[in-house]
Amino acid sequence: MNVQEVRAVWTSDKGSMAKQTAETRWAKIIQGIIDDIGETAAAEDVDCQRRAESIAIQIALKDIKKGIEQNKPLTRLPDDGKLDIQEWNKQLAAIGECSWTNCPWLFGECYMYRCIQRILNSSKYWQNYDVFKRQKDSTFVKSRAAVEELASRYIQIVADTQLAQNESKEEAKKLLFIEMTEIALWGNATDLSLLANLTLEDLQNLQGREAIQKSQRNIVDNDTDDVWAYLQRTVGQASRQIDVVLDNAGFEFFTDVLYAAYLLEAGIATSIRLHTKEFPWFVSDVIPSDVESLFEHLESSECFPGRKCLDQLIPRLRKLFQSGVITTTSDPFWTTPFSFHEMPSKAPALLKELQNSYLVIFKGDLNYRKLTRDGLWPHTTTYETALGPLGRESGVRILALRTNKSDVCVGVPTQSKVDALNEEAPGGAWVRNGKYAVVSFNEGR
């Protein structure tokens, strides 16, 4: 099955995650934003003009919510002074007549977040307001135990040893790579129950193999060996910039920064570039202000009272940012409704940058949906095929780390494996419940 033959999932598809999301989740997200703006506007230090404008914003948001609940047609976006509005309306026209619960899921969901941002862009006092900050902060603080455990593990295994660069410990270095990659993979599972939890001794004595194999049983497409082989084969390259297209703020972003630090400490990368979203997107995606917010939270003994390892770790991480070894960037393409199959025509400069990258790591479910055009591929379709123009001969080395939370999943080795997964997690639950994952790699050759 080629790219042209594969249909994207629609919010009207019976039994789909798309349908469930459109019917039960979107209106709740909008209501959460209305409540958040109301709470912010009610604070004593908010001036009258800002408070008055918040009422108009809440009314506009209620209109969106009502439209979702009543399944009204998606309509052209009014101009808000931003250059991308024309592209949104052009794509909407290409789709044709559609409504909230009868539209391509990827477009409809992106359209909802752009509608929210259009309202804020059109305001005077709320243009730079993060409607999800309160929620992101609250969720991060609740991950206290996981943050403190990972800080401890990082200090003990990576930062305070030479294991990462010890030439005589090749197998141990590989186990450490797998362990750190899985921490980044399961970065939104704050109980860490799916990790092997290896000690330095486990790694050095190679006793971690069994624990790692057990933790990997829920990874339905696992290309870790292929990634490691690529990294070992190219270790002599002078410039090894790794790009990470981020997903969630908070705990997952903390694991991403740890992963970036490890890749640098291990000599795998010479520099790291983190890609954030330009404005609040899909509730919890990282935006530029979340970078400093991460450090403010980690440095707060009120948020994280277990300071022993954090006080050693945080200065090391800050130094990586301050020295420019880790940088952040935002490209407007990440907040468009386009799948990444459209990158060659819609963002050729960005594509060129990624082709020049040593490795591009895409985090999370939305990035995976965009990589695969959110298509209803047979699950045994190869990852390379589903990548379309970013697959064979693209020149982009792509690693996707994604827990399965939508309708698309490719790269499962055999149909018998798919059958076993359907028996183990009936009704396609293994594609949607977040307890299964993929580590999918394609070298773009």
From TrEMBL:
It catalyses: beta-D-fructose 1-phosphate + H2O = D-fructose + phosphate; beta-D-fructose 6-phosphate = dihydroxyacetone + D-glyceraldehyde 3-phosphate. Residues 21-419 form the Damage-control phosphatase ARMT1-like metal-binding domain. Keywords: Hydrolase, Manganese, Metal-binding. Gene3D superfamilies: 1.20.930.60, Uncharacterised protein PF01937, DUF89, domain 3. Subfamily III proteins have a conserved RTxK motif about 40-50 residues from the C-terminus; the threonine may be replaced by serine or cysteine. This is Sugar phosphate phosphatase. It holds the Pfam family ARMT1-like_dom.
